[in-house]
Amino acid sequence: MAELNPASFAGTHRKAVFDTGTNWFLGVLFGATLLVTMANQLLPADNPFHVATFTVTLLGKYLTLALLAVAVDFVWGYLGILSLGHGAFFGLGGYAMGMYLMRQIGDRGVYGNPELPDFMVFLNWSELPWFWQGFDQFWFAALMILLVPGTLAFVFGWFAFRSRVTGVYLSIITQALTYALMLAFFRNEMGFGGNNGLTDFKDLLGFNLQSESTRIGLFIASALALSLGYLLCKWITVTRFGRVMLAVRDAENRTRFSGYKVEHVQLVVFVLSAMIAGVAGALYVPQVGIINPGEFSPLNSIEIVVWVAIGGRATLYGAVIGALLVNFSKTWFTGVMPEVWLFALGGLFVFVTIVLPQGMAGLFKHLKKQPRPPIGPDAQFHREATA
User: Fold this and answer.
1) CA distance 273 to 101
2) What are the start-end ranges of the H helices in the chain?
3) Does residue 378 lie within any of the structural domains?
């Protein structure tokens, strides 16, 4: 029997992770991040190629939404779970970051209270709630950014997957989850700012959030988080665990009868996807300057699914393409023709569903597989054969 070489398996996994799509994605992301940073920092404002700080912040926001799309594609494209509630995990990560940013304001708020955020002073709260304790420390906030969405996903998934809730029923209860959170966070007595949410942030880790350098730093951090999140999901999909994920997606009952703990696979992937969504929300909040219950809206979660469908499921980079394309279009339409945007989004979704069922990524794969016409001495023979 041939001896198995662990190094060969590592090399095989490395090649599978860094395939053509991944290499192109990472190359374009790195190049774009470098060019945008240089154009903002090195070129004068009157230069036509200068990238304004506002644009840098907008691009950083797009990258966080792309990371959110990767999280949804990971659980939908590779496991077959259509989650219509990932906006909940995104919002929880955002609120965890917002709570840290609010604690950093200190006595610089409107009411000058060093302990209580302004909205608590306005509502005549006498002391800081217990669940706000610890958020004055960044390490604690970073831990909560992962643990809060992950814990909710674990509890939800534990009951849902053990009960073997699947298909449209699972999608409906995930949407009910985010809707319930939206209603809860709208209430002032919850202690999260009510319908106004958390805003008026001052600094992050001691850096002024309004400064140009901080905005660039957040943009780079968003690009780094997107690349790491992408690589993590890609690596998992090419491992043995990833092959089990695909088996669950394509034949859940057969996989269960083969002896695999399908519920465990679903739970692990769902929790990891929720944590990635939480990180995306945490990076989103300091760049937009606010977090409110509107982020829990079921419409937002549905829109995330549209991004992935347009970009192409089970590719990861397709989710990034869809998120960037749709959000750029949204920015343009809402600035020029706001009343047309929803019709344009619906039309784009219908067009892709009918004409490009595999999304933009599927179109790229199709074009790549097209045979190239021969050149040189074989060209004449090819023309005669196809005439």
Assistant:
1) 24
2) 6-17, 20-41, 53-76, 86-103, 118-122, 138-162, 167-185, 212-238, 240-250, 252-257, 262-288, 298-311, 317-336, 341-355, 359-369, 378-386
3) no
Q: What is the 3-state secondary structure (H, E, C) of 62-103?
A: HHHHHHHHHHHHHHHCCCCCCCCCHHHHHHHHHHHHHHHHHH
Assigned domain for 131 exists: yes
pLDDT in tens, 104-119: 998 898 888 889 999 9
Rounded CA-CA distance 26/316 in Å is: 12
Residue 380 belongs to a domain: no
Angle, alpha carbons 21-26-28 (nearest 5°): 95
Under 8 Å between Cβ of 226 and 284: no
Residue 376 lies in a domain: no
**Which pairing describes strands 207-208 and 203-204: parallel, antiparallel, or unpaired?**
antiparallel
pLDDT higher than threshold 90 for residue 286:
yes
This prediction's pTM: 0.91
**Residue 253: exposure state from Cβ atoms within 10 A (0-12, 13-18, ≥19):** exposed
Contact 66, 303 (CB under 8 A): no
* Residue span of the structural domain in which 158 resides: 20-368
* Residue 2 pLDDT grade (very low, low, confident, very high; cuts 50, 70, 90): very low
pLDDT in tens, 172-207: 999 999 999 999 999 999 999 999 999 999 999 999
3-state secondary structure of 360: helix
For the chain, the domain total comes to 1
Radius of gyration for the alpha carbons in the chain, expressed in angstroms and rounded: 23
Q: How far apart are CA 155 and CA 191, in angstroms?
A: 23
**Torsion angle of the four alpha carbons 218, 69, 285, 60, in this order, in degrees rounded to the nearest 10:** 30
Task: Provide the terminal-to-terminal Cα distance of the chain, rounded to the nearest Å.
Answer: 53
Nearest-angstrom CA–CA distance, 273 and 124: 38
Q: What is the DSSP letter of 113?
A: -
